[in-house]
Amino acid sequence: MASDMFVVPQTRGTVLCCKCGISMAPNPANMCVTCLRSEVDITEGLRKHVTIMHCPDCDSYLQPPRTWIKAQLESKELLTFCVKRLETDLKKVRLVNAEFIWTEPHSKRIKVKLKVQKEVLNGAILEQSYVVEYVQQDNMCDSCTRFQANPDQWVASVQLRQRVSHRRTFFYLEQLILKHDAAAHAIKIKQMDQGIDFFFANRSHAVKFVEFLGKVAPTKRFDLFASKGGY
Ligand SMILES: [Zn+2]
Ligand SMILES: [Zn+2]
């Protein structure tokens, strides 16, 4: 009877965590999830710094090997781009969430906070958040480079200007232009302080573009100019 005093009462199928001693379902490490979390870093080996190419002239980002994606800071498009750059890393873990962390717009740095999960040791799922910093390197994109080499090739330009009272409309209009690929024939799109300039090598393309703008937005809300003899 006396030896029974030293038997620890145990439920069948549980063991004690080798680190903190809590009763738990057995796993190969015999360590509870809380202790595993403190021992295992599931973000180990995942990149925390990524260099990205940014064209300062048209505000687009290089999606290797050679696609330039136009995206504004904090936009859904930019977040998709950032996550896509981590494709190989995200094969090792499961992405749960991604969101921007605010950075100063002129810092040439973008920060994204990612939440990932990974199964370790027979079904224990660990979840962890980490931050990836994207360092922006300015590099002119192909079309801007071409344009710079031969800046006089355009025959018509459309200058879209926002009015302060209609900032939201302007943003919406930009999204529409992207969505409909309406400026696909522009040989250059240049971000200006208060708007965007579109350059066309062909007058009829410029006219079509202006017609598109007239259809999707009341022209009262933005200013339109044409150069090189009008259209
Ligand atoms: Zn433990
Ligand atoms: Zn560019």
UniProtKB/TrEMBL annotation:
InterPro entries per record: Nmd3, Nmd3_N
Q: Name one GO molecular function term.
A: ribosomal large subunit binding
Source organism of this protein record: Gossypium davidsonii
Q: Which residues form the Nmd3 N-terminal domain?
A: 17-220
Q: What is its main location?
A: cytoplasm
Which terms does the UniProt entry file under GO BP? Answer: protein transport; ribosomal large subunit export from nucleus
Coiled coil region boundaries: none
Q: Per its UniProt entry, which superkingdom is the organism in?
A: Eukaryota
Q: What is the stated purpose of this protein?
A: Acts as an adapter for the XPO1/CRM1-mediated export of the 60S ribosomal subunit.
Its Gene Ontology cellular component terms are: cytoplasm; nucleus
- Is Nucleotidyltransferase among the key words of this record? no
Which keywords, in A-to-Z order, does the entry hold?
A: Cytoplasm, Nucleus, Protein transport, Transport
The similarity comment for this entry is: Belongs to the NMD3 family.
**Under what name is this protein listed?**
60S ribosomal export protein NMD3
Cellular localization per UniProt: Cytoplasm; Nucleus
